[in-house]
Amino acid sequence: MKYTQDFIEKVQHANNIVDIIAQYTQLRPTGGGLMGRCPFPDHQEKTPSFSVSENKQVYHCFGCHKSGNIFTFLRDYQGLNFPQAIEFLADRSGVPIPQEMEDDKQADQKSKKKKQLLAINKEALQFFSDNLKKSSKTSEVAKYLQHRQLTEDVIQTFKLGLALPEWDALCQHLKRKNFSLELAEEARLVKSKNRDEPKYDSKYDIFRDRLIFPITNTMGDVLAFGGRIIMTGEPKYLNSPETPVFHKGKIFYGLEQTARFVRSEDQIVIVEGYMDLISLYQHGIKNVVATMGTALTPDHGRVIRKLTQNVVVMFDGDSAGKEATERALSVLLEQDLYPRGLILPDKMDPDDYVRKMGAQELKDKIDHSLDLMNLIFKGWLVDFHGEPSEKIKLAEKLKKVLDVVPNKNYKQLYIQQLAPLMGVEKFWLMQTLSNSEGQQSKAMPEGSKTSSSSKIFGSTQGRHQILGEAEDQSQRVNQARREVYLQDEPMYRLKKATKAELILLSLAIKSYANMKLFVEEKVEEFIIHKDVKKLLQEAHQVYRQSPEKFDRLTSLLISKVDEPKLLFFNDPIKEFTKVSSKVSDSSKDDGLDAETYTSVGRIDEQQKELEEKILKDAIKRVRENYLKETLKQISHELKLGATPEKMERMMLIQKALKENK
Q1: Cα separation of 104 and 111, whole Å?
Q2: 307-325 burial: b if 16+ Cβ within 10 Å, else e
Q3: What is the pTM of this model?
Q4: Which range marks the domain in which residue 563 is found?
Q5: How many domains does the chain have?
Q6: DSSP strand pairing (370-371 vs 203-205)
Q7: What is the pLDDT of residues 319-333, one digit of tens each?
Q8: What was the pLDDT predicted at 211?
């Protein structure tokens, strides 16, 4: 779906960033906004340094320097991408999402069906959750939870529930709530009975007498359910079949709860089962997701890629777990990720291991996990005796993995590292990998033959052709992403801007008065950094044409820059924010007294004076940098050949430099 700038702004205006952030940290009023402790898990602090501006709809932490608007907060804290954040906020505020004109009716039907399925899943979750809360402390499910040592907090965090043993308990509940059982069947909550089954109503519950694990997306929508049998029976675990809202190969269990920890740790740990994830989470290892027993897919890889490049695969230590680890390798390498692996001893699963050995022992194992290729290759070398036939078979296994690796340097390093372990020369392994495709190419027309070596290491011409095609494809994909998701990638890059330019930018867009000073000083032409100049031109346009939008200008610009924190490049001013916070903290809950109001007023006035002084100094330095750079260019030109015009221009610049001091 392509979202226009007008629609994005409409969604943004319909939501208040304070309402979102206040769910995760306590915010208290200060002289210039709201302050609280930083909610991000990688920044633990005792003194509040996290500032939220309700007027500007932005946040900035003076401790860890995270900054952004409502969209970036949902991205970094909840793991939502830009389109998901828009859809979440639109749904939250009741703003209808526009549909493409040509398939408007079909899109409306799909959207309506999706909402119906999510609604009935939500009701089912409430039913399961209430069942668990009402269950006796001596019930079998209570005994199971005690055996697993799950706390009440973790049970609530993951919204665990209980499916009753009756055949149609959920069916009857949904009927009482006026939900269609046909819709429930489409959601794979119930099934139609066969002729030889007991004579209940025409449908019965899929989940019966099971501990329920709701499967949600990062926005909290309930997509499906998993259930573990409480007593004896098969299957031990039962998962919802796929539905229009649930595609198992695209969803990780637990990501709603763990995405922020994955981002803060810059690492994701992948396990197989529900209990593996919950147990690790309870023991403090929170940057974890579960595949729900399914094979890792390219869609899974793309989900990971949006969060981090660093992956640790920790599947069960049995033979099935080892096979799943091997299958995961190609998927992760294909997405240009950096996978590491960990196989637990004695065929233990992560839940067994962390409960027996403790969290610190497992954390140490994760920290010292091996490169996944090396780990798997080590397994391949078991019972390897160096026979020629074994080397060929090993090379063929290796080729299947390396063929999908997009990073050519990565391939070369692997071959350089693995060749000695096979007892072969690097050149032989390279040649063998290329020849293994040569047998298949014999049946192909001469003009269509392309050796594997040229694909991976070969001729300069072939290499350039393949790299060129990859680059063209990458450009097409990036262009498509820009067309489909407006602002999904930054438009402006500020990393190489000077300190003076960044201070000028951050202060100019901070207030209408500061922008007025910027305009009056006519400094725009002296800005060297192109993207800083473009941003200020955009801000100037809002200042001139839509002054009523200026308060939220910073929030509108944040999604367009590569480093949002650089829009808050005003370190000297943060001291005043801290003082203001202390004044606010000293006030009572029932309001500020007259003396405190006066203190806040003085602080606000002092901050404005300081901002004006720093802004004027930044303007002076930006002019100076531009004039010095221009003077350097003219001096170079004069060396090549002096002219009266160049001499006059040089004198004018020298004069301007003196006047600027």
Answers
A1: 10
A2: bbebbbbbbbbeeebbebb
A3: 0.66
A4: 499-660
A5: 5
A6: unpaired
A7: 777 788 888 998 999
A8: 96
